[in-house]
Amino acid sequence: MNIAFFYNKAARSGGLAILDQGLVSFTNFFITILLAREISQTEYGIFIVLQTIYIFASAINSSLIISPMTTIGPSILPKDTELYFSSITLLQFYFVLITFFILGFVGITALYTIGHQNISKMFLAMDSALIFHLLQDHFRKILFTRLDIKRALQNDMLSYGLIILGIIILSKFKLLSGTNTFIVVGFGSMIGSLFGFCQCKHLFRLKALSLKETANSHWKFGRWLLANVVSQQCSSQIYIYISAIFLSSQMVGALGAARNILGMSHIVIFGMDNLVNPIASKSYNERGIKALNSILKKTLFYGGLIIFSYCCLVSIFPEVILETLYRSKYTGYGYLVILSAVQYVFLFMSRVPQYGIRAVQKARVLFFSSVVTSVISLCISAPLVKYMGLSGACIGMIISQLILLILLFLNFKICQKENNQ
Question: What is the pTM of this model?
């Protein structure tokens, strides 16, 4: 695939990529809003905690499988396509099985240890939903890597359409719960993963396997992303766990409900992830650092304009939005929406240097930046939450995100200087 054709295809695919991510983000937004409205604050708080485990496992998978694939995949020669995608898909199946059994063991152990069947059932339902989500996401990301956005959108329309339909049915018959939500998500993801395999099966050949070489190339790049994800999750999700410890699951539910409002910004943030990562990698490999910087500047300007406008909008009318979405259930938590909006601005901005660092394959830099951030977060999280409550949790998230942004920006500048020498 020559560079001119690649960019033309990317430009045509941009709208579909945003539409696709819009569907995914809307589904997640719809689920969390409806759950927050209809189940108890305690159950919703437990759901939020389990959701952080779900997100953490997905982030590990992204580090070892997805992110290296979206970076390495666009540069694969046509003659090596079947070899590469067959191998990485088999490795994905291995990862899914290992994750399923580890989390399943944890869930069963929790059942016999704490004796709380509702939490254990929700945990096991989360585990089942996770493995099918990882598979469905793997196939859709293969399509994104090859800029086959149209078929990726078809897959997500089927998978997430079934999930939305299932959640509506649960709500209509008063069956909505954290456990049943995970079951519905698992079913929709299972159908999407089966459809995704059919969409990508022309890329797979049982005899075309190079597991060791593919695993080594992904590990060389992904080990630093993995370390980065672990550190980054510690610096962000630690505030959720600390809030659960020092406050209560009800308070965690309130924090989750307020942060849900910023969920629609994921359309832009994750939509760019799907598109900018492979484009940035291809651009750097074939046109150098100047072309990469041009893409990053455009991403920062246009994406930042959208994110900043959205965050300003929700910050102006936080209580009205909370009342509209949750009735009177979370009235008085508008300040959490405002603080979360500030964090999301920094969250978006920190994505831009990450695209550049991944494109030049200096993933080690991501790790060191996140380690510093996570150490600071671990030091300040408990005092902030203990003495300032939910405000302290949000302020801590803002501080952590700002520190990460500064470190990533400075380190990417260093990467640029090294590239020019």
Answer: 0.76
